[in-house]
Specification:
The complex is a heterodimer of chains A (366) and B (295). Chain A is an all-alpha fold. Chain A is built from 16 helices and 4 strands. A two-stranded antiparallel sheet of chain B has the order 1-2. The chains are: A mainly alpha (366), B mainly alpha (295). At the A-B interface, helix 6, helix 10, helix 12 and helix 15 of A face helix 4, helix 9 and helix 11 of B.
């Protein structure tokens, strides 16, 4: 097969982790660039990108249940919250104002947050399995409101609304990653940590969805009745999708506020869920790379709109003018989602596919 | 007993707001199979519009004008934003309506400013004694108006040609198209009706306390209402809306004594608990039709 890289002779080749040569080259190049970025840009942008990577882990999780298994969940904020509070409580100061157990080792609280959230997902799953489509979406939305209420009232854990509590402590092998060390600044270390974690979880997710389980998810998504007829256990796979998705949400939730160091129970509302759904849909449902692109896009969007006043002088940068930057930011956020999904319902990934297909056959357009 | 009756009437009053909103959700869902998350924005816009118009033409003229204007706005949104999305996945469309909601709401907020705006209603917080129970007038007005609106709506769907066309589209779009019904105008009309209902609901929410930027949150209470009643049942929307209002009000009155461990403000999330309980027994709501599927 020498010189004919696109000729596949086996199923394994077709289902390989990175199944084409351009994918291998470009993924490698992207990883190298991402590793070099922290030495080229300022710390505040690094923090933003690190948050974006964490959001990407959460978006991959939502994509597993929504994009691959086709069960639209608006309850992602609830599972993010469970992860965030598990991580923060485990690694918190035992003598502090709020609940804390002093287990600061990152791998321990990271896995624990994921597992607790995953367990919550499993508990919710039996209800979810009975419902379909929009009923499911609104019930999971109800979960967010119930969660918000619980976290508002449970002040010994959450610190209460308007007060909040410190986020999880990122300590790896006794080194505090959010503090500057000999070679790196704090944001640089956090950026690298989040990037490595994103790569790990993205690889795990990609491996999951190209396995037997992933094919079962896709069958459930495309037509659950047909899937049941060919022997896919619907209850089992829907529950599994919810559990895995919630695990990812838990992991992402515990990391989400590490960069800021502080969070408030009001952060886990409907808006957060909608943001994650928007990430998945804008990135492209049912693709891992789409979820990552969507998450970075949504995270960077406020920053991009903040730069607008320098370009468009009629927008005042302070909060008192006739058209303030906050209003523009919010309107632009809404408009972008609308225009984007009308023009390309398959999202960023769809655009990428079009560009790729154009250049693959260039200069012939057919 | 007095406390119970007061609580009940309060619940029916706010429940009629939820019922109006829920009707809008269900009308849109029945014709287009999409849940429109833009309803909160239309509700807010309706209330704000009335707060401006009432100073010019008086409250009672302002309400119908605002309802019509919001209906036109909703129709415009359907024609420009939703029409290109026919046949696309419903959740992509739902997210688009969230985008519309954000845009309309931010623009409306700019007209509210930081203060609370009054809609200029004649009732305020005045009370009236009814059968020995003191109740706020506005709750009686809400309930009465909603009953009238629901009666007109049901008569419209039952007896008018357009109403029949809308029911036909809800039943089967292709067959309706083959009978010469313009499915597109039914879509637009259902958005317009939903927008008008949302505007009316917005005015009712704003009576008494006024309009502020947080008003839109009320509209989300209609979501448990529509699920409770069943997504595709108009009667279910009304029953669900009233049930949500009553449960919220009763829980708000008694939960502090009966179950204080649930925390204050539990009444605000009680409708969601009710929704979960009902769905565990009936996955398609109280009156929703079960999906019939074949391979």
């Amino acid at each position: 097969m020498k010189g004919r890289p696109e000729l596949y002779t086996s199923y394994a080749q077709d289902m390989a982790f990175l199944n084409t040569r351009p994918k291998r080259t470009w993924t490698g190049a992207l990883v190298v660039v991402a590793l070099l970025v922290p030495f080229a840009i300022t710390d505040d942008l690094l923090m933003l990108l690190a948050t974006g990577f964490v959001a990407a882990i959460g978006a991959i999780g939502l994509n597993i249940v929504t994009g691959y298994a086709g069960q639209v969940s608006l309850g992602h904020a609830f599972f993010l919250a469970i992860g965030a509070y598990t991580g923060a409580a485990l690694s918190g100061d035992p003598d502090g104002r709020v609940l804390g157990f002093g287990v600061t080792s990152l791998p321990v609280w990271l896995l624990a947050s994921g597992l607790v959230a995953g367990l919550a997902g499993l508990i919710v799953a039996p209800i979810a399995v009975r419902l379909r489509g929009l009923y499911l979406a609104i019930v999971t939305l109800g979960l967010v409101f119930l969660g918000e209420h619980v976290f508002r009232e449970w002040t010994s854990l959450t610190g209460g609304p308007g007060v909040g509590r410190p986020a999880a402590v990122p300590e790896l092998f006794g080194v505090r990653l959010d503090r500057p060390s000999e070679f790196f600044s704090g944001p640089q270390q956090l950026y690298l940590l989040m990037f490595v974690l994103l790569v790990i979880f993205a690889v795990l997710a990609r491996n999951l969805v190209r396995s037997r389980i992933g094919r079962a998810f896709a069958a459930v998504r495309d037509r659950d009745l047909a899937a049941a007829v060919i022997g896919v256990d619907l209850t089992r796979y829907k529950a599994l999708a919810f559990a895995v998705s919630s695990f990812y949400a838990g992991v992402a939730g515990s990391l989400l506020f590490v960069v800021n160091g502080f969070f408030d129970p009001g952060s886990f509302g409907l808006l957060l869920s909608v943001q994650y759904i928007a990430m998945v849909l804008i990135g492209g449902a049912g693709t891992i790379s789409g979820a990552i692109m969507g998450a970075l896009f949504i995270t960077l969007l406020p920053r991009i709109t903040r730069e607008l006043p320098t370009v468009l002088p009629f927008i005042s940068a302070d909060a008192t003018g006739s058209v303030t930057v906050f209003q523009v930011e919010a309107v632009l956020y809404g408009l972008l989602i609308v225009v984007f999904l009308i023009v390309e319902p398959r999202g960023l990934f769809g655009i990428w596919v079009r560009v790729r297909n154009y250049w693959r056959t260039w200069p012939f357009s057919y | 007993m007095t406390e119970f009756l007061q609580s009940l009437i309060r619940g029916l009053g706010s429940g009629s707001i939820y019922a109006l909103l829920a009707l809008g959700f269900v009308i849109i869902y029945k014709s287009t199979r999409v849940i429109s998350f833009a309803q909160p924005a239309f509700m807010l816009a309706g209330a704000v519009l009335v707060s401006y118009l009432a100073a010019e033409v008086g409250f009672f003229a302002a309400v119908p004008i605002a309802a019509v204007l919001i209906a036109v706005l909703a129709l415009g949104v359907e024609r420009t934003v939703l029409r290109p999305m026919i046949g696309k996945p419903v959740f992509v469309v739902a997210i688009i309506t969230i985008g519309v909601d954000v845009v309309v709401r931010v623009v409306t907020n700019a007209f509210i400013g930081l203060d609370v705006r009054q809609v200029g209603d004649p009732w305020g917080l005045n009370t009236v004694t009814l059968l020995g129970v003191e109740v706020q007038q506005r709750y009686l007005v809400m309930f009465g108006t909603t009953v009238a609106v629901v009666a007109v709506l049901f008569a419209f769907f039952r007896f008018s040609r357009v109403g029949l066309a809308m029911r036909a589209v809800a039943y089967d779009q292709e067959v309706a198209l083959a009978q010469g019904i313009s499915v597109g105008s039914v879509f637009a009309l259902s958005w317009a009706i939903a927008g008008g209902l949302a505007a009316l609901a917005g005015v009712f929410v704003a009576t008494g306390a006024g309009v502020d930027q947080q008003l839109w949150v009320i509209a989300l209470k209609a979501l448990p209402a529509i699920i409770l009643g069943g997504l595709d049942s108009l009667g279910g929307a009304v029953v669900g809306g009233l049930a949500v209002g009553v449960v919220e009000s009763l829980v708000g009155t008694y939960q502090g004594d009966v179950a204080p461990w649930l925390g204050p403000n539990f009444a605000l999330v009680a409708p969601y608990v009710l929704m979960l309980v009902v769905l565990l027994v009936r996955p398609y709501g109280l009156f929703g039709s079960k999906e019939v599927e074949r391979l």
